[in-house]
What does this fold into?
Amino acid sequence: MTEITQKQLDLRFSNRRKMAWRSFYYIVVFSSLLVGYALGSDEAAARVALVQWIVLPVGGMLTSIVLAYFGVSAYEQGKMK
It folds into this structure.
């Protein structure tokens, strides 16, 4: 079994944090756009309500990516110290 260098560990943690930040960014942007669109009119709000079945799972998936990557990265970094 090969030893992982500190540089490789830092790269791994950095990649996980980047993925988590990207997912968080997508959550914020997508939610803002969706809410802004839904507030435009009653018609738009009805359309958003119709696609709610896909919006909630996508939001949940992105949230789980954020929590998992930040959590694992923080746990492994704390374990290394």
